[in-house]
């Protein structure tokens, strides 16, 4: 859907995918605190999404399965229709599969396709769907940016599984390719977290020990640490094509 005629106003609208839990919820809260109108999204958890939206100053919730192309189109249409503009897209939604890297047989074609579809193809498709609105944001409000949430596993040979790590490496490279093709209107960056304290990683004792013992920051990230990195990239007028490794310095040791 085309956005309404652009208005040179102070409103900034951000769509954050996968934002009813974990890192996405923190990103939505930090952007809301910074004055953004926020479009919350998840595949399930509609009640949580609506409750979060009710708590924020300006927010709506949209349910959509990013495995489904029609849902992607509807999500971006509803996000733009809510305030007639879209300034920021945060591709946070992602999936992981834990498979030991030595267990090649378990990394089936089905696993590769599933991870690639959600972690690579869906973010690309959402950028394509939002492109026109993001260009309007650049033209009329000096805004217009995308932040992809990838992983340190896409930078270093690590991570929950080889298909997961490869999907995040692809997302990092896509970030750089899109920064080139969409500049100067739309800036495209990524945040690549290491271990983040979320319900998903609560039982990952070995990884927690690694961060406590070896990372210069001596701890995993909080979701807010990652959200603040996203806010910094969104706030910039110049940074583009950056993959900001946010691992507390673990990669240095
Ligand atoms: P999470 O499970 O809390 O969040 C994932 C979100 O993605 C959920 O809101 C879910 O609704 C959404 N999602 C998944 N599949 C979807 C689909 N088919 N359609 C629509 N939405 C879908 O996990 P999280 O840890 O907060 O992860 C957020 C992002 O951060 C992911 O991209 C993940 O790969 C990345 N990441 C997480 C960590 C970590 O330690 N938690 C580390 C590095 C990168």
Automatic annotation (TrEMBL):
One of its GO terms (molecular function) is oxidoreductase activity. Pfam families: adh_short_C2 (PF13561). The keyword Nucleus does not apply. CDD domains: SDR_c. Keywords: Oxidoreductase. InterPro entries: NAD(P)-bd_dom_sf, Sc_DH/Rdtase_CS, SDR_fam. Coiled coil: none annotated. The keyword Oxidoreductase applies. Belongs to the short-chain dehydrogenases/reductases (SDR) family. This is NAD(P)-dependent dehydrogenase, short-chain alcohol dehydrogenase family. It comes from Pseudomonas extremaustralis.
């Amino acid at each position: 859907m085309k956005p309404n005629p652009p208005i040179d106003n102070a409103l900034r609208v951000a769509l954050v995918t996968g934002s009813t839990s974990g890192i996405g919820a923190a990103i939505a809260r930090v952007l809301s605190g910074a004055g953004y109108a926020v479009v919350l999204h998840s595949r399930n958890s509609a009640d949580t999404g609506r409750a979060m939206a009710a708590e924020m100053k300006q927010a709506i919730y949209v349910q959509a399965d990013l495995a489904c192309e029609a849902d992607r189109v509807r999500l971006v249409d509803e996000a733009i229709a809510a305030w007639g503009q879209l300034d920021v897209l945060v591709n946070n939604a992602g999936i992981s599969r834990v498979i030991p890297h030595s267990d090649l047989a378990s990394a089936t074609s089905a696993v590769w396709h599933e991870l690639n579809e959600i972690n690579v193809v869906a973010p690309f498709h959402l950028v394509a769907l939002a492109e026109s609105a993001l260009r309007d944001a650049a033209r009329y409000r000096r805004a217009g940016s995308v932040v992809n949430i990838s992983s340190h596993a896409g930078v270093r040979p690590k991570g929950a599984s080889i298909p997961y790590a490869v999907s995040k490496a692809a997302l990092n490279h896509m970030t750089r390719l899109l920064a080139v093709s969409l500049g100067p209107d739309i800036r495209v960056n990524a945040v690549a977290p290491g271990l983040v304290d979320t319900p998903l990683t609560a039982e990952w004792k070995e990884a927690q020990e690694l961060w406590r013992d070896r990372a210069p920051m001596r701890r995993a990230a909080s979701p807010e640490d990652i959200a603040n990195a996203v806010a910094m990239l969104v706030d910039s007028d110049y940074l583009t094509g950056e993959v900001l490794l946010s691992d507390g310095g673990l990669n240095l040791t």
